[in-house]
Design goal:
By secondary structure, the protein is of the alpha/beta class. The chain contains six helices and 13 strands. Strands 2-1-3-4-13-12-11-8-9 form a nine-stranded mixed sheet, sandwiched between helices. Strands 6-5-7-10 form a four-stranded mixed sheet, with helices on one face. A hairpin with a 5-residue loop joins strand 5 and strand 6.
Length: 210
């Protein structure tokens, strides 16, 4: 069973339907107890970093999400759900994130992007930087669907699982222990996105070493 965190800032039904397409049961929950006790947890998200953290805290979900990640069971973050894992976000101010991954979330600088527009929206290719089991069937230059104006800057480059280029290289996915998260939307990325979600669903729910 996949549990998808509901904090009113994500395309939750699209993520749920994507898991259902690969034959996996997924429930949407905003209950702190269900989230902390989940077998596998997905944190999606669309919107502003500060608003999302405020909503997560208002619903008393920050602690259960952090506790779940600390349990060592499989976790998948999507788009804003990747960014919220970091220490700080700089969208319309400075805001504290969940602090699971050291680093910041910063904006693409339009002045340095040439003819490229911000937000980064549409299909782009990735390059693998690690050897994640989730990426075993995902070759370099696979296309995934992105919609974002901000990107993560991990303090430790070893957590970068995928890299993408938009004006300059940026981190398109991270992996650290039981935590995997993407800047792109696998649920909008057709067959390859479904392949990635299926690989996550196939992971054992037994805790892994952090």
């Amino acid at each position: 069973m996949i549990t998808i965190v509901d904090y009113q800032m994500g395309n939750l039904r699209s993520v749920q339907k994507a898991f259902e397409k690969v034959g996996v049961e997924a429930r949407i929950s905003s209950e702190p107890g269900e989230i902390a006790a989940a077998e596998k947890l997905v944190l999606p998200g669309v919107g502003a970093f500060g608003d999302a953290m405020a909503e997560i805290r208002r619903r008393d979900l920050a602690g259960p999400i952090v506790d779940f990640i600390g349990s060592g069971k499989p976790f998948f973050g999507i788009c804003l759900g990747l960014q919220l894992l970091f220490e700080r976000g700089f969208e319309h101010g400075e805001y504290e994130g969940l602090g699971i991954i050291k680093g910041d979330v910063v904006r693409f600088d339009p002045a340095k992007m040439g003819d490229l527009k911000v937000p980064h929206m549409g299909w782009n290719t990735i390059v693998k930087k690690g050897s994640s089991p989730l990426l075993a069937d995902i070759p370099d230059q696979t296309h995934f669907y992105f919609v974002h104006s901000y990107y993560v800057q991990p303090a430790d480059a070893s957590v970068v699982a995928l890299q993408c280029d938009y004006g300059h290289p940026f981190c398109a996915a991270i992996e650290k222990g039981n935590v995997f998260a993407t800047q792109f939307h696998p649920e909008k990325s057709q067959a390859d996105g479904l392949k990635l979600l299926s690989a996550f669903a196939s992971l054992s729910s037994e805790p892994v070493n952090q």
